[in-house]
Amino acid sequence: MMQKNYFKLEEPFKLSRIAYVNGNYLDFKKSLIHIEDRGYQFADGVYEVFNVSDSKLVDYDLHLKRLFRSMGELKIKSPIAKNTYIYHVKNIIKKNIIINGLIYLQITRGVAPRDHKFPVNQKSSIVITGRHLPADEYEIKFKEGIKVTTHDDLRWGRCDIKTVSLLPNVLAKQDAYIKGASEAWLINKEGHITEGCASNAWILRKDNTLISHPSNNSILTGITRTSFLKGLRKHSIKFKELKFKIKDVRNAKEAFVTSATQHVTPVIKVDKIKIGNGKPGKFASIFRDVYMEALQLK
Question: Are residues 142 and 120 in the same domain?
């Protein structure tokens, strides 16, 4: 297993932020996008969020593969050659002196007069930004655990595509914030918990089997989820892709969320349901270790 104190974050640097916008590196405050960019007018775009640890990218290849899948599903042409993404992403890390933080990469169909139909032969737009994360943010959440609310899943039918169309997620997240929670788990019309607003949802049954919603059009197959599953298989930890409901949460031994920013974080409460004894359980550290061992740095 890897050593403890994963992803310990530095204090944010007081530096000018540099962004990459359609071929140019610009001061963050001067980075502009055209008013008729289809990402602004139609949410016609996709994105990825890369975690940065010790100036290295976490699971870069998996993120890039998902990015190209999302573009393919929406028939958006890549604005740059596939092998040049790593250069620009690492350049943003270097120019912003990011030791631990995040890289946000967004691609839209591009700029064209407002029309629902796809523009013909239009070059797509790309934006890459980076930022530092607050010191010890993850460690605090991991030690204390987080509270989760539930919310109707109002999203469209292709949640497997990582699009910038996130308004239902935003509304559910805001509702969770108002109620004093960190995340909201989304419940579909059949009563199944699909995933969180910005994370995948997991529960540990009393037979020590970890379950999460099947990877299909109803959820975004998280990169952290993918690496975590790889680690679970390596250590022969029982796992099943199964749909689950609130009644299953009530009987859960432990619960978790996974994402690029939250890694593996224990959930201690869902709505008014206390998970276990209301504190992170013994499997939290085990599962975090399993994930940290499985991720890839580049």
Answer: no
